[in-house]
Write a structure and sequence with these properties.
Length: about 210
């Protein structure tokens, strides 16, 4: 069984680990400099990446901005790292969907035909990406989020728990869509939007916490 290193040891990492095991990997270790735990699922938690050439790494960090920064740092520090896509065996993924690298698709999630998932995206449990959607790099769908057909999600945008976006909508980069919102119009970058229907609540600054 091929080994993989998980970056992060918080609650999201536990969910990611389930998908990692399901997709046929063995976890070598979790890496988290701040964790007070010693292990998760009997896998050790260490402070630094035990680097060697061609190691496999999955980024188990839910915050899209932090995940982006960590990937940038890893690629600068280490020359040969693989970021495989992690697909839970109970996810439903079209043979006609496309993926970059380092994505995580969790249990009971759906990725429909002709959808394009960038790199380092999270498609969380029971979320639904219908046909012809585009998720740009480092974007995320929380559990139960639903995208109609032909929706475009920008870089680092977060669609929170239970939010629904109707077909043919475009959401730009660095947007947070609040839980259980219904989105029926386009939104520009760097916003927090919420409601049914969703409305602009405020501007969003880079690295603002949303989880």
């Amino acid at each position: 069984m091929k080994k993989i290193i998980v970056i992060g040891a918080g609650g999201h990492a536990i969910s990611v680990a389930e998908s990692v095991f399901s997709s046929g990997f063995e976890i070598e270790c979790f890496v988290d400099i701040n964790s007070k735990q010693k292990s998760i699922f009997n896998c050790p938690i260490v402070k630094e990446v035990p680097y060697r050439k061609n190691i496999d790494i999955v980024i188990a960090i839910a915050d899209n901005f932090k995940r982006n920064s960590i990937v940038n740092d890893l690629k600068k520090k280490y020359s040969k790292i693989n970021f495989p896509n992690i697909f839970h065996k109970f996810a439903s993924i079209s043979n006609y969907a496309g993926f970059g690298e380092g994505n995580i698709v969790m249990q009971n999630a759906v990725v429909g035909s002709k959808s394009k998932i960038g790199s380092f995206c999270i498609v969380n449990s029971s979320s639904n990406v219908d046909h012809n959607n585009t998720l740009d790099d480092f974007s995320s769908l929380a559990p139960g989020a639903v995208l109609g057909g032909n929706v475009k999600i920008g870089k680092r945008t977060a669609v929170c728990i239970g939010a629904t976006i109707k077909n043919n909508i475009q959401i730009s980069s660095d947007v947070v869509i609040g839980a259980n919102s219904y989105v029926n119009k386009n939104f520009k970058s760097n916003l927090v939007v919420y409601g049914t229907p969703a409305k602009e609540i405020r501007n969003r600054n880079k690295y603002d916490k949303y989880l």
